[in-house]
């Protein structure tokens, strides 16, 4: 009987510790997406040296490769379209 009481108290303490840690955390699940969900994909083939160059540039800008490419291509496309209008 003493062992049973001991395990129950350990289980209770673990549950309390878990609940305390969880109080500061957000709800489980996927975080809300921004204004627009990015669900379209573009596939680009590149040689290793080109990919390394793009990764280095993204790293220097403090961005992910995907964010950096999207940012730079969008800006370039807008400039290109302005030339034709």
Number of strands: 0
Note the main sheet.
none
Radius of gyration: 25 Å
Q: What is the first-to-last residue Cα distance?
A: 85 Å
The parts where pLDDT drops under 50 for at least 5 residues are 1-6
Order of helices and strands: HHH
Main traits of this protein?
85 residues; mainly alpha; 3 helices; 65% helix; elongated; disordered N terminus
How does this model look, in words?
By secondary structure, the chain is mostly helical. It has a domain at 55-85. The protein contains 3 helices and no strands. Helix 2 (48-60) packs across helix 3.
Write the layout of secondary structure elements.
Layout lengths: L1 H22 L24 H13 L4 H20 L1
Summarize the structure.
This protein is mostly helical.
